[in-house]
Amino acid sequence: MEVKRDILWRVYLSYILMVLACVAIFGKAIYIQQVEGNKWRSMSDSLHQHIQEIDAERGTIYSEDGQMLSTSIPQFDVFIDFRVESLREKNGQLFRKYIDSVALCLSQLFKDQTQAQYKSLLQQGYKSADGYFPIKKKISYREFDQLRSFPLFKLGRYKSGLIIVEKTIRLNPYNMLAFRTIGLARDSNKVGLELTYDSLLKGRNGKQLVRSIAGGVGVPVDDNYLIEPETGKDIVSTIDVFIQDITESALMKMMVQKNAEHGCAIVMETKTGKIKAIANLGKTNSGAYWENLNYAVSPSEPGSTFKLVTLLALLEDKKINLNQSIYLENGTWQVAGIPVKDAEEHQENNVTIKKAFELSSNVAMAKLAYLHYSNSPKQLFKHISDLKLDAPTGIDLIGERKPSFHKPGTRMYNASTVPWMAFGYGIAISPMQTAMLYNAIANNGTMLKPYLVSYIKEEGIVLNEFRSTVVVPKICNDYNLNLLKACLEGVCIEGTAKNIFNNTPYKVAGKTGTAKVADDNRGYTTNKYQSSFAGYFPADDPQYTCVVVIQNNPLEKDYYGATVAAPVFKEISDRLFSTYLRSGKSNVSNIKKGDSANYQFIGYSSDLAYLAKQLHIPYKDSTKGTTLLSTIQNNNKVYTLQKKQLNNNGMPVLKGLTLKDAVFLCEEKGLIVNISGKGRVVSQSLLPGQVTAKGQLIYLTFN
Question: Is the peptide bond before 377 cis (omega within 30 degrees of 0)?
Fold first, then answer.
């Protein structure tokens, strides 16, 4: 009995202890739930919830004529989570049901693999039970929109396992066009306007509380926690796509022809200071050309284009008059033991100062500067400072470098500094500074700050408008200004550029430049030359200022500004004159003409015949039913339809065509058409006979 009682006591004790433990556990559970519930729930949330940033949409950069130069577009990466239950259950019944149709749809959409290859890919992913199996990366929104309607995928994320990762990428629709000026939008490598106006373009990111679920996907918890992202502002630049295109094309053509190292071309609107085009081309390691650096704001030795500064200083200080004679020393003159030589060959010796400028004589400028400024160099440097050439232009591009001058009192200043500086050696200024200077001459002496942005916009509403900024109200008196204009025109009529502009139907004023460029530590021992031309047109009513600077290949024998840089200037000015300026108005679409029976009309013969019949106009058809373009012309009120020949190899003549016919011909050649005005074609940006390529942009102006 004693043993039995002892066993029962132990059993009862164990039972009581178990009951007490259960009561304690139950009580603790109630306590945790009711008393400490909020504490533990918040701790759980902290482990599974987090604040996620919502990227703001970056603003768009537009050209002044409304074309997108840089914009943000969505891009998608496609993955499949093969671990989802619906794909694994019943031995993969759902997966096996749809695999063939999904493989076929993927093959037809992307056209990079066959149906069998996509099927094998999907089977591989299913076998590995991969939770993040890649299918396709970097697809467009159009492709994504089609993909989510495919069999299986349209069942949704949790049944199909489809995972879409959206990213936003920055796109430059015109690729290389003004690429360095517009810039990149990569976080670690922004340049150009993308960098300068980054704070406006990037907007403000939003924030949202999300809970992490399977696959690491964040699901929004509560909209009350949401801070909406703020879209970036839009930038409307001063760049004109048409002007940029012809500028870049003209520069590229010469660069390739001369196998040049690098070059730039700038077009500035004379009366406003707006930069309408900047082309920067440098040779890459592969030998191709790319907008790799902004040479337009990088200082280099300007050469003879700087002679304008020397001449201005001499005239303003009343040291000379243009009709006095100067001896050119047969093209070579010693100063401080260093020979000064004329780069441009000529047979002149006793000439006027005006003629010496037109001949681009280094000897003349060096002698005049040495005679009048060697004992008072600060007087010359004051003119340079007054012209703002010793400081950056302040254009809205981060990275513009400072110019370089060896001023009196500095270590590099010596007896040869002033005479050599007089013809643009031993100093460094940027092509943009040269453009600002020559534009001041064209703009009747008022120097304007160059700028690249016209407006800041938000949802189409203008928030800020940028206007011309006067840097120097008057760079010299009117009398001397007219003398300088005459000298610049003389360069293009009787001077170094006369052969280039001899038959030009408009006046050009400008200056050639040929500079032997210092090559790092080797000085001027190598044959590296820089060709340049700076000027404006039409000279009697300037509309555009243009500067072209090209650094030549050391092996190139033709390196003169008149034969390398000036032809680029002329090609740009010819195209702008024929498109914008020939009529005497900057916008020919505003020119209205009344109806006239003496007009020549162009169109398809069937259309013209129909119109003639409907209007009861007598006509004769010599086209014999051809569908080619025909002309209808007045001949004693009897109209004759004549066959119009088309250039099948190059660009046809579109002048006189209606919108329908002109667009039809352009699109047949694969061109992208941009139109302005209405009526009939009065000008075309791609000239008749010019070879075209598919995807090329053409501007058509209607009367």
Answer: no
Q: Tally Cβ neighbours within 10 Å of residue 561.
A: 31
Joined tokens for residue 33: 């739930």
Q: For position 90, what pLDDT does the model report?
A: 85
Residues 6+ apart with CB under 8 A from 245: 177, 685, 697
Report yes or no: 135 and 127 within 8 Å, Cβ to Cβ.
no
213 alpha carbon, distance to own chain's centre: 44
Q: Which helix (H) or strand (E) holds 54?
A: strand 49-54
| 81-99: burial string, b at 16+ Cβ within 10 Å, e else | bbebebbbeeeeebbeebb
Burial of 579 per CB tally in 10 Å (0-12, 13-18, 19+): buried
**The two structure tokens encoding residue 9:** 């006591």
Tokens of 140: 């467009």
* Residue 110 pLDDT > 50: yes
pLDDT, one tens digit per residue, over 25-76 is 877 777 777 766 666 655 555 556 667 677 778 888 999 888 888 888 888 8
The residue behind tokens 């022809």 is 257
| Domains annotated on the chain, with CATH | 53-174+206-234 (3.90.1310), 242-581 (3.40.710.10), 588-702 (no CATH)
Question: DSSP assignment of 657-689, as one string?
Answer: -BHHHHHHHHHHTTPEEEEESSSBEEEESSPTT
* 125-134, 305-314, 316-325, 676-685: the lowest-pLDDT one: 676-685
Cα separation of 666 and 660, whole Å?
10
Please list, in sequence order, all residues whose beta carbon lies within 8 angstroms of the beta carbon of residue 394, skipping any fewer than 6 positions away. 400, 449
389 CB contacts (<8 Å, ≥6 apart)?
309, 403, 429, 433, 437
Distance CA 379, CA 381 (A): 6
Mean pLDDT of all residues in 495-510: 93
pLDDT beyond 50 at 596: no
User: Which amino acid appears at position 425 of this protein?
Assistant: Y
Span 417-428, pLDDT tens digits: 999 999 999 999
Q: What is the DSSP string of 154-190?
A: GG-HHHH-EEEEEEEEEE-TTTTTTHHHH----TT--
H-helix or E-strand spanning residue 596: none
Cβ–Cβ under 8 Å, residues 251 and 264: yes
Q: What is the DSSP annotation of 106-130?
A: HHHHH-SS-HHHHHHHHHHHHHHT-
Query: Minimal CA–CA distance to 58: which of 149, 167, 177?
Result: 167
Q: Facing residues of 700 across strands?
A: 675, 684
As a whole number of angstroms, the distance between CA 346 and CA 420 comes to 20
CA distance 625 to 113: 49
Helix ranges (DSSP H) in 565-615: 566-576, 605-614
- Per-residue pLDDT averaged across 109-113, rounded? 88
